[in-house]
Amino acid sequence: MAIAPMPPEKSAYALARYSRSPDSIEESIRWVHGHSSEKFWEQFYFDYGHASIADLGHVIICFEDISELAAIRLEDEALWDGQAKSSRYQNFASSRWFVPGQIRGSETEALYEGILRSLSEIYRLLHDPLSAYLSEREPRPESMKSADYQRTIGARAFDVTRYLLPLAAKTNVGQVVSIRTLEKQMTRLLSSQLPELRAIGEDLKEACQRPPVNLWGELCGQASGLNDPLAPTLARHAKENAYQEAVYSDLARHAKAALRGTGLDQPGTWGAVESVELIDPHQPLDEIVTTLLYRVSQAPYRKILEVVREWSEKEKQSTIEVATRQRGPYDELVKEFRSGYAFNFDILMDIGAWRDLHRHRRCQQVQQNFTTLHGYDVPPLLIKAGLDQEYRQAMDAVRQDIESLKNKDQEASLYAIPFGFKVRCLFKMDYAEAEYIAKLRSGVKGHWSYRTVAWQMKQQLAEKFPFLGEAIQATPPDVEDALTR
């Protein structure tokens, strides 16, 4: 029996009652209609802690004109389904960018705007010559419609120019989540150190206290839409969390002191840095401690692990204590404690392509903060088209300007970082997920950057576990088909 949409708190109440009584679903819905769902939620969800009942109600939420940085943080949920505005199929040249409130009207804003204008200008200037080069190199087959061909060529050109998009670029995100995930998301946003995210958290609370937009019902001629607030009880209880507010700042201070003198804050001392590295198995305590320190540093996982292995048991435990000392009785451990996966990949890649790998939910991801420290990637297509010099000049200039901006406002400098700069992220997964990512993301439809990463994941697996690695049907990155979408 298919059930028509209901307000999420009421549908979750009906399904929870349905599982706990002999009544049919129709009888359960009639019961819920005549009783207070607010009282039910107060008692069972908040007082008794029956969190799973909130998995039974789902909502559609759209976020418009938020920064790419905010979108990344918004999507950072394990149980999340959604889509962001595609930088591959849409032209961001006409889009505005987010400006942090604290620099508006100041001299710092002028420097910030100058960086973003220069990125926007080169973004526009490169697109047409790239498209022309691609059209010459990959002429339209007779079997391909002209409109499809132009869209495909445009997407391949945007694959390059999006390297110039800053984290401040504005985007839209649509999500479908359970109200359990929604509550976690609101709490996380409200606990963020980033003002934009806290503001989005407040807007999300307000939206949950109002009836949802029912445009579809109006278009279908319904006399009235859903008049019930979206999720009023959850919204009323959502608030910032002291543990989430403090844990990463506490860890950062601890890591700075604990790793002093190790050279881990000096990239020049790391030696050769691999873009993909499969970490050898190691002890659970060492993994958790290393992951906690990795999250608040910029060093490779392997280098941090080498230091941690030399520590005493007491030194390792002190890191755990810092990461848990403000944890309340109902707080989940932060995700850096999720350990024990067989395959841990430390990956260094450009932000734009990492955004696509970030969408994989069947693994644990621990991302280091965005920075210009690791340098930037140069798209191979730019080199082939003879346009890489303009790109390099723009990125070198922007990198210097971001360093100047960092001295004036750390937050603004974060938003100014373009997608072409590299970010380091730890991916923890089982074999099934490793096989899935390597096979899917190495396909010819994909972006060359994550295709290369996916192929290297297979190669690393094959080197250490030959049978398992060779069984993965991945596509080498030198196998190309620019017109396949």
Describe the secondary structure blueprint for this structure.
Blueprint: H1 8-19, H2 25-33, H3 37-47, E1 58-67, H4 68-74, E2 81-84, H5 107-137, H6 146-161, E3 170-178, H7 179-190, H8 195-208, H9 215-219, H10 232-237, H11 242-258, E4 276-278, H12 284-295, H13 301-308, H14 313-324, E5 343-350, H15 351-357, E6 364-367, H16 380-384, H17 388-408, H18 410-415, E7 422-429, H19 431-441, H20 448-464, H21 466-470
Number of helices: 21
Helix % is 40-55%
Strand order of the largest sheet: 4-5-7-6
What is the 3D shape? globular
Radius of gyration: 24 Å
Using the coordinates above, name the CATH class of the largest domain. Alpha Beta
Average per-residue pLDDT, rounded, comes to 91
What is the β-strand count?
A: 7
- From the 3D structure, determine the CATH topology of the largest domain: Alpha-Beta Plaits
Largest sheet: 4 strands, antiparallel
The CATH architecture classification of the largest domain is 2-Layer Sandwich
Distance between the termini: 38 Å
- Structural domain count: 3
Q: What is the strand content? A: 5-15%
Structural class: alpha+beta
Q: pLDDT under 50 segments (min length 5)? A: none
SSE order? HHHEHEHHEHHHHHEHHHEHEHHHEHHH
